[in-house]
């Protein structure tokens, strides 16, 4: 914490969080920070109302504002298909982050202690985890801080008794049908009695040593990830040759970073899924978050669930953002008599060499801009993704149609990527397979009077320079369908 910061203190009413709030209240002025209590009402126990009141009253006695949030955890568990324990965790973090944003806080303080750390290490060991998982709970990560992580639970409870701090006992914390409670009340005490009375401390120290290793390996992996991968729209691609030359400790982390970027998750990729992906020579692997990883001889592609039924109308002269593909589409109408471009640019957009400065240098994404004969387009221009039975007459084939699927195969477009390729459609025909080829019927000729210039600008994180690019431009209003007949 630094002077001037506002910190949300997560307080459930148990000894850990009440001790944390009391200790922070005593030291907040010395550190020059402000505090705001966040308490989530889970609606799972009859005494939940009184718990919320106790926390609010205690915060008021300390001169600290308190916000009580509400969540229907059983309903959330049903909707997400997870257990109550996991649903409660998701609900708490949602509430705390929303509160943090609402009040302009910079940190969230949590009451995890040394015993929580030991329990977490055992849980992850039993489930199967790598270095990152066995490193346990970090003392600080992003906006989360855990000031009591090195303090044993017994000392926290003693502090509450000595200071006369009111606390509650959550009956759910005693129910051993939940994994953490089983480890807390039965497994860890048994192991401590049989093997090491100081087992919680030993596990916490092992986690700290693992954290040193994990942080170093993660930093190395981050550099390797940025150098060997790129993101295009919602898809992340990793170069197969690069990762095959990496040590496995880095290789596995690069794949995890790619999964996180694609899934938009901060979680760890389960070790068994990472190993499935590492050991798979080619083919696809299903990963958490609905992500599919496809491994080919050249790439490992990470794809979120493909958009279903995506179809968006486009207005010439405007920019349209397509969140399902994480890209923007800009169109403008150009007078063919004043436009200046060569034969390739006239019909297909910029040359591969020019486009390579804006798009990843892979064979299926070299033409982010296309030029079409505006008068050959139907009244309505739409953008969508592929559908079963799509056919296409690529420029250069004399108007001969082929299945879009066959075009993708010839172009060596990875299977998973095909569902994210934007298609410009007019009059029921594919006028442009974005980034690849326009349709023969819509090419610009010497007789063309108006040209539709269309550019697809995805979110790009380029592998070569590690730059993140997000194109945007002010909305421009150009000619409308009223000018379709001529200049």
Structure, described:
By secondary structure, the chain is α+β, with helices and mostly antiparallel strands. The protein folds into three domains: 6-204, 3-Layer(aba) Sandwich (Rossmann fold); 233-303, Uridine Diphospho-n-acetylenolpyruvylglucosamine Reductase, domain 3 (2-Layer Sandwich); 311-483, Phenylalanyl-tRNA Synthetase, Chain B, domain 3, CATH 3.50.40. Helices cover 37% and strands 21% of the residues. It has helices at residues 15-31, 48-61, 73-80, 84-103, 114-127, 131-134, 153-163, 179-194, 199-228, 240-244, 248-263, 271-279, 343-348, 352-355, 404-411; strands at 6-10, 34-41, 65-70, 107-109, 140-141, 144-145, 229-232, 235-239, 283-286, 292-295, 299-303, 311-314, 319-322, 327-335, 369-373, 381-384, 391-392, 402-403, 423-426, 429-433, 437-438, 450-458, 460-461, 468-469. The strands form five sheets. Strands 9-10-11-8-7-23-24 form a seven-stranded antiparallel beta sheet. It has a six-stranded mixed beta sheet with strand order 3-2-1-4-6-5, with helices on both faces. Strand 19 (423-426) and strand 20 form a beta hairpin. Helix 1 (15-31) packs across helix 7 (153-163), helix 5 crosses helix 9 (199-228) and helix 9 (199-228) crosses helix 11. The longest helix has 30 residues, at 199-228. It is elongated and about 90 Å long. The relative contact order is 0.09. Mean pLDDT is 86; it is low at 342-346, 348-361 and 464-487.
